[in-house]
Amino acid sequence: MTLTESLRQVLGVRGAIAAVAAVSVAGAGAGIGWWQRSSVDPALVATVTRGTLTAQLTTSGTLRPIESLTYRSPLTGRDAEIVDLAPEGLRVNEGDLLVRLDTTELQRDVERLETELRQLQIDVQVAEGERQEAQAALRAVSEGEGALTVEEVRTRFQLAQKKVDRLRQEYEQLKPLMEKGFITRDELGRTASDLEEAEEELALARKRTEVAVQLTHPREKQRATLQLAQRESQLVNVRARLQDAETRRASLQNLIEDCTLSAKRPGLVVYEEFLAASPRRKIRVGDRVTSSQGLVTIPEVNRMLVESSVSEAEVHRVHPGQSAVVRLEAYPALRLTGKVVRVGTLASSSINRPLEDKRFDLVIELDPSNAELRPEMTARADILLGTRDNVLLVPVNAVFEQDGRFVAHRAGRGGVDTRVIELGESNDQVVEVLSGLDLNDRVLLSDPGSSATTPQPAATPRLELREGGRALQPH
Q1: Given this model, what pLDDT does residue 352 score?
Q2: Residue 412: helix, strand or coil by DSSP?
Q3: CB 46 within 8 A of CB 431
Q4: How many CB atoms lie within 10 A of CB 39?
Q5: Cys bridge to 177: 41, 182, 315, 453, which one at CB 3.0-4.6 A?
Q6: pLDDT for 355
Q7: Cβ partners under 8 Å of residue 223, min gap 6
Q8: Residue 133: other Cβ atoms inside 10 A
Q9: 358-to-308, 341, 361, 465, 473 alpha-carbon distances in Å
């Protein structure tokens, strides 16, 4: 859409142009014009000047926080009663109290866990003692009585073996003596009988040694080892239960601390709606809430942005990085600065008029400020699009539309002369005139055909331009 079309829409917002009366042709080559032989009120006249034009686009929008943090109950799977709540609208600093939840049930759980912990500590001591006993029993089998018993049977076996060897040697030595008659047969028989008895004792000692070494001692050692393993497993289990109870106690204590919700950063207290109430209302002290219920939202009011929109005809003129001056209806004297950070890619239209008024989202990030800003405040932003130096300027109120063309009513000595003009850049106060008027020309601020007797206030064009959505803005 061209600047001409945009200006027509603005002029349309001001209302239909009054019908032009008493029109006469000024002459060939003089263009369209007419003379009205009447006096002109000086209060309705402005002078064409030359100066610098700062082009800007004016749009309205709403303040939003760049970031906000919603606080919820930390008690997953259970509800809790709100016992304390910071006033809504209060400005808080980091660490200030926001919400306190009732912790009576948690305190009872902690007390039960304390009793369980004391019993588990006793169980650990008992299990430790039993483990030490089992360890001592294994040591006794491996290195004490068990090992000593094995050594005893081995020693008896060795002594029996030596006795048998001695008696056998003695018997062999006595046999030649008996043949030579030095000893009797009875003496040799007694030696043979002793040898036989010693061999029987040796056989028995051998069996005892085999049983002790291969059966009894390994079995006792295995039993002691198994008992020690059982006691160690029991100790590990009791210690694990103790550690689990201590962890649960620490978790409950942390939950109790977390039930006092403090601000993690400065901001403004905003209550959330209580989802369980019908009709909907905001939360209050006494409500029982779950972890899914938002309690308080803290918008970061020191970092705000303006969410607005720009018309389809003007979107090509707005780019990220352009400076903006923002004013708030709540603080008329306040001027905030910022810059455009995002221009929408896709247009959206009104539900009631889907084929008209297509607009693109526009986001302006404000510079940090100590002003008492609040979300949802109505804002008006003047986006600075550029400047033009040494150009002819007339007030916006001096431009009118006639027969599809822009005109200005020039006041002269002979009356009022309507001139077709060509427009250039503009803002919501003045517009650049490319042709049709000269420096120091005097132009009317109202249509000669209207009944206006006083000029419109300087602020009026700004409001009308905002309502029209598109106005006298540079390409």
Answers
A1: 55
A2: strand
A3: no
A4: 8
A5: 182
A6: 58
A7: none
A8: 13
A9: 13, 20, 10, 17, 18
Please tell me the chain's helix, strand, coil percentages from 3-state DSSP, rounded to the nearest 5: 40, 30, 30
Instruction: Please state whether 355 falls in left (phi above 0), alpha (psi between -120 and 50) or beta.
Output: alpha
Number of neighbouring beta carbons within 10 Å of residue 256: 16
Cβ neighbors of 462 (< 8 A, separation 6 or more) are 58, 428, 429
Tokens of 184: 């009797």
Which single residue is written with the structure tokens 């009026």? 460
Burial class of residue 49, CB neighbours in 10 A (0-12, 13-18, 19+): middle
Rounded Cα distance, 352 and 137, in Å: 92
Question: What torsion do the CA atoms of 285, 291, 294, 295 make, to the nearest 10 degrees?
Answer: 30
Structure-token pair, residue 375 = 């979300």
Q: Would you tell me how many other CB atoms lie within 10 Å of the CB of residue 145?
A: 11
Beta bridge partners of 305: 64, 365
In eight-state DSSP terms, residue 78 is S
Token code pair at residue 118: 């004391």
The secondary structure of 204-218 as a DSSP string is HHHHHHHHIIIIIHH
- Identify the three-state secondary structure at position 160: helix
Half-sphere exposure of 7 (CA within 13 A, CB side): 28
Q: Give the residues of the chain that fall short of pLDDT 70.
A: 1-40, 350-356, 449-475
Total Cβ atoms within 10 A of residue 231? 20
Here the tokens at position 349 are 């239209």
Give which of 426, 371, 365, 375 is closest to 397, Cα–Cα. Answer: 426
Would you mind telling me the total number of residues written for the chain in this entry?
475
Q: Which two tokens stand for residue 120?
A: 């588990």
DSSP state at residue 290: -
Nearest in space to 409 (alpha carbons), one of 431, 428, 436: 436
Ordered by where they begin, the domains of the chain are: 3-65+305-468 (2.40.30.170), 68-102+259-299 (2.40.50.100), 106-258 (1.10.287)
Bond preceding residue 354 cis, omega within 30 of 0: no
**What CA–CA distances, in Å, run from 291 to 75, 101, 132, 195, 448?**
6, 12, 48, 94, 69
**Any residues with CB less than 8 A from the CB of 154 and at least 6 apart, and which?**
209, 213
Confidence at residue 34, expressed as pLDDT on a 0 to 100 scale: 37
Alpha-carbon gap, residue 113 to 250, rounded angstroms:
10
Place of tokens 């000029």: 455
Q: What is the DSSP string of 13-63?
A: HT-PPPPP-S-----TTS-S--EE-S---GGGEEE-EEEEEEEEEEEEEEE
pTM summary value: 0.54
Amino acid at 148: L
Question: Which of 420, 395, 403, 411 has its CA nearest to residue 448?
Answer: 411
